[in-house]
Amino acid sequence: MWIKLVGCIVIMGSAVLLGMYYGNCLTRRLAALRQLYQAMQLLKGEICYRHATLSEAFTEVGRRCGHDVGAWMETLGRKLMDRRSATFMELWLSAVETISRQGAFSQEDIGLLREFGKNLGYLDLQMQENRILFFMEQLDVQMKELLDTMKERQRLYRTLSILGGCFLIVVLL
To answer: Which uninterrupted H or E stretch holds 89?
Structure first.
Protein backbone atom coordinates (compact mmCIF):
# COMPACT_ATOMS: atom_id res chain seq x y z
CA MET A 1 0.00 0.00 0.00
CA TRP A 2 2.77 2.43 0.94
CA ILE A 3 4.67 1.60 -2.21
CA LYS A 4 1.64 2.51 -4.33
CA LEU A 5 1.22 5.78 -2.44
CA VAL A 6 4.89 6.70 -2.88
CA GLY A 7 4.67 5.75 -6.55
CA CYS A 8 1.61 7.99 -7.02
CA ILE A 9 3.39 10.90 -5.34
CA VAL A 10 6.47 10.41 -7.53
CA ILE A 11 4.35 10.24 -10.71
CA MET A 12 2.38 13.38 -9.83
CA GLY A 13 5.51 15.24 -8.79
CA SER A 14 7.25 14.32 -12.02
CA ALA A 15 4.23 15.31 -14.10
CA VAL A 16 3.93 18.69 -12.38
CA LEU A 17 7.66 19.35 -12.79
CA LEU A 18 7.43 18.45 -16.47
CA GLY A 19 4.61 20.95 -16.97
CA MET A 20 6.56 23.64 -15.13
CA TYR A 21 9.63 22.89 -17.27
CA TYR A 22 7.73 23.41 -20.52
CA GLY A 23 6.20 26.60 -19.16
CA ASN A 24 9.63 27.91 -18.19
CA CYS A 25 10.90 27.14 -21.70
CA LEU A 26 8.50 29.80 -22.99
CA THR A 27 9.78 32.29 -20.42
CA ARG A 28 13.38 31.53 -21.41
CA ARG A 29 12.53 32.00 -25.08
CA LEU A 30 10.96 35.40 -24.40
CA ALA A 31 14.02 36.49 -22.40
CA ALA A 32 16.34 35.31 -25.19
CA LEU A 33 14.32 37.19 -27.82
CA ARG A 34 14.48 40.35 -25.72
CA GLN A 35 18.25 39.95 -25.33
CA LEU A 36 18.62 39.45 -29.08
CA TYR A 37 16.49 42.53 -29.78
CA GLN A 38 18.65 44.61 -27.44
CA ALA A 39 21.80 43.26 -29.09
CA MET A 40 20.45 44.18 -32.53
CA GLN A 41 19.82 47.75 -31.34
CA LEU A 42 23.43 47.94 -30.21
CA LEU A 43 24.66 46.34 -33.44
CA LYS A 44 22.77 48.90 -35.49
CA GLY A 45 24.38 51.69 -33.51
CA GLU A 46 27.85 50.22 -33.91
CA ILE A 47 27.50 49.79 -37.67
CA CYS A 48 25.59 52.98 -38.49
CA TYR A 49 27.10 55.52 -36.13
CA ARG A 50 30.56 54.22 -35.35
CA HIS A 51 31.02 52.76 -38.85
CA ALA A 52 32.57 49.69 -37.27
CA THR A 53 33.37 46.60 -39.27
CA LEU A 54 31.25 43.53 -38.58
CA SER A 55 33.96 41.89 -36.51
CA GLU A 56 34.44 45.01 -34.38
CA ALA A 57 30.70 45.56 -34.08
CA PHE A 58 29.93 41.99 -32.99
CA THR A 59 32.80 42.00 -30.49
CA GLU A 60 31.76 45.33 -28.97
CA VAL A 61 28.08 44.37 -28.80
CA GLY A 62 29.05 41.09 -27.17
CA ARG A 63 31.06 42.92 -24.53
CA ARG A 64 28.25 45.37 -23.82
CA CYS A 65 25.41 42.84 -23.67
CA GLY A 66 26.94 40.47 -21.16
CA HIS A 67 24.36 37.64 -21.37
CA ASP A 68 24.12 34.49 -23.50
CA VAL A 69 23.47 36.41 -26.70
CA GLY A 70 26.32 38.76 -25.84
CA ALA A 71 28.76 35.91 -25.34
CA TRP A 72 27.60 34.40 -28.63
CA MET A 73 28.15 37.69 -30.48
CA GLU A 74 31.55 38.27 -28.89
CA THR A 75 32.65 34.80 -29.95
CA LEU A 76 31.40 35.47 -33.48
CA GLY A 77 33.28 38.78 -33.54
CA ARG A 78 36.51 37.09 -32.50
CA LYS A 79 36.04 34.40 -35.14
CA LEU A 80 35.48 37.09 -37.76
CA MET A 81 38.73 38.79 -36.74
CA ASP A 82 40.65 35.50 -36.82
CA ARG A 83 39.09 34.01 -39.91
CA ARG A 84 41.44 32.30 -42.27
CA SER A 85 39.51 31.24 -45.35
CA ALA A 86 35.96 30.99 -44.08
CA THR A 87 33.38 33.37 -45.46
CA PHE A 88 31.10 35.44 -43.25
CA MET A 89 28.18 33.20 -44.16
CA GLU A 90 30.01 30.04 -43.05
CA LEU A 91 30.99 31.64 -39.76
CA TRP A 92 27.46 33.00 -39.26
CA LEU A 93 25.82 29.61 -39.86
CA SER A 94 28.29 27.97 -37.50
CA ALA A 95 27.49 30.56 -34.84
CA VAL A 96 23.74 30.10 -35.37
CA GLU A 97 24.15 26.35 -34.90
CA THR A 98 26.02 27.05 -31.67
CA ILE A 99 23.26 29.24 -30.26
CA SER A 100 20.56 26.83 -31.42
CA ARG A 101 22.07 24.12 -29.18
CA GLN A 102 21.45 26.29 -26.12
CA GLY A 103 17.75 25.57 -26.53
CA ALA A 104 16.23 28.96 -25.74
CA PHE A 105 15.23 29.77 -29.33
CA SER A 106 12.57 27.98 -31.35
CA GLN A 107 13.24 26.61 -34.83
CA GLU A 108 11.41 29.60 -36.28
CA ASP A 109 13.74 31.95 -34.41
CA ILE A 110 16.77 30.04 -35.67
CA GLY A 111 15.40 30.29 -39.22
CA LEU A 112 15.09 34.06 -38.82
CA LEU A 113 18.68 34.24 -37.58
CA ARG A 114 19.93 32.21 -40.55
CA GLU A 115 18.02 34.44 -42.95
CA PHE A 116 19.32 37.60 -41.27
CA GLY A 117 22.94 36.58 -41.76
CA LYS A 118 22.58 35.76 -45.45
CA ASN A 119 22.84 39.35 -46.63
CA LEU A 120 24.45 41.12 -43.71
CA GLY A 121 28.08 41.05 -44.76
CA TYR A 122 27.56 41.98 -48.41
CA LEU A 123 25.50 45.15 -48.23
CA ASP A 124 26.36 48.82 -48.00
CA LEU A 125 25.81 50.76 -44.80
CA GLN A 126 22.25 51.85 -45.55
CA MET A 127 21.17 48.36 -46.62
CA GLN A 128 22.73 46.83 -43.51
CA GLU A 129 20.81 49.28 -41.35
CA ASN A 130 17.59 48.42 -43.19
CA ARG A 131 18.30 44.71 -42.81
CA ILE A 132 18.87 45.09 -39.07
CA LEU A 133 15.68 47.15 -38.70
CA PHE A 134 13.70 44.53 -40.64
CA PHE A 135 15.11 41.79 -38.43
CA MET A 136 14.21 43.80 -35.33
CA GLU A 137 10.64 44.11 -36.62
CA GLN A 138 10.51 40.35 -37.10
CA LEU A 139 11.79 39.84 -33.55
CA ASP A 140 9.16 42.26 -32.28
CA VAL A 141 6.43 40.25 -34.01
CA GLN A 142 7.81 37.02 -32.52
CA MET A 143 7.83 38.55 -29.03
CA LYS A 144 4.28 39.89 -29.37
CA GLU A 145 2.97 36.52 -30.58
CA LEU A 146 4.74 34.77 -27.72
CA LEU A 147 3.39 37.22 -25.15
CA ASP A 148 -0.15 36.78 -26.51
CA THR A 149 -0.06 33.02 -26.09
CA MET A 150 2.43 32.50 -23.28
CA LYS A 151 0.10 32.67 -20.25
CA GLU A 152 -2.46 30.40 -21.88
CA ARG A 153 0.16 27.90 -22.99
CA GLN A 154 1.82 27.85 -19.56
CA ARG A 155 -1.54 27.17 -17.93
CA LEU A 156 -2.21 24.48 -20.56
CA TYR A 157 1.13 22.80 -19.87
CA ARG A 158 0.52 22.75 -16.12
CA THR A 159 -3.05 21.48 -16.48
CA LEU A 160 -2.18 18.78 -19.00
CA SER A 161 0.75 17.61 -16.92
CA ILE A 162 -1.49 17.21 -13.87
CA LEU A 163 -4.16 15.43 -15.90
CA GLY A 164 -1.54 13.24 -17.54
CA GLY A 165 -0.13 12.32 -14.13
CA CYS A 166 -3.64 11.46 -12.85
CA PHE A 167 -4.31 9.38 -15.95
CA LEU A 168 -1.05 7.48 -15.54
CA ILE A 169 -1.82 6.81 -11.89
CA VAL A 170 -5.29 5.47 -12.75
CA VAL A 171 -3.86 3.25 -15.50
CA LEU A 172 -1.14 1.86 -13.25
CA LEU A 173 -3.44 1.21 -10.31
So the answer is: helix 88-100
Q: How far apart are CA 34 and CA 115, in angstroms?
A: 19
pLDDT, tens digit, 9 for 90 and up, residues 65-78:
878 888 888 888 88
Name the residue ranges covered by the structural domains of the chain. Answer: 2-103+128-172
Would you give the distance in Å from CA 166 to the centre of its chain? 33
Contact (Cβ atoms closer than 8 angstroms) between residue 118 and residue 89: yes
Per cent of the chain over pLDDT 70 is 98
3-state SS, residue 132:
helix
Which secondary-structure segment (H or E) carries 74? helix 68-82
Query: Amino acid identity, residue 5?
Result: L
pTM above 0.90, yes or no: no
